[in-house]
Fold:
Amino acid sequence: MPTAVYSGSFDPVTLGHIDIVRRGCALFEQVIVAVGHHPKKKYWFDAATRQQLFSDAIGDLPNCSVMTFEGLLVDFCERQKASVILRGVRSVTDADYEMTYATANRDLTGVETVFLTADPKLSFLSSSIVKEISGNGGDVSRYVPSGVMAALSERTA
Ligand code: ADP
Structure:
């Protein structure tokens, strides 16, 4: 069974991300969560905090680790000897966007992308909507791990 890399911004991690990583861990020998950092992108949380929040949320998963990365995802996969990229799709819009990257990544190094469809109960959920609700004083406790709740409270205090 190959090692898979589950990449994203995870700014912050939501229960939708956790669902994908748990299901991925049942399919692959190892899943490495790759928390992306792009110098020109603005984040609510820095890369180390996003990594810590994800690690805290998957504490009981033995075949999962969480790392940060910069640069091309395919290079990170090669360094980690991972032959699969794992991604979640919530909608046709996601699928359309993901197709381009999956095809480009396969063309670059041969790495395959495996998609898991979102749990319908979580398919509306995104880091952006969590930030929008939380930033306007709404309750996101049903959507994020408890550690993220604490971090959001500090951020919006
Ligand atoms: P990116 O900035 O790379 O889109 P995200 O952190 O938004 O990263 O998402 C990482 C991955 O998780 C993507 O494949 C995205 O489609 C998937 N994802 C995000 N939210 C959900 C959700 N609620 N259910 C399933 N997959 C999701």
Summary: The chain has a mean pLDDT of 96. The pocket of adenosine-5'-diphosphate is lined by residues 8-10, 14, 16-17, 20, 87-90, 94, 118, 122-123, 125-127 (CB under 6 Å). The first strand starts at residue 3 and ends at 8. The first helix runs from residue 15 to 27.
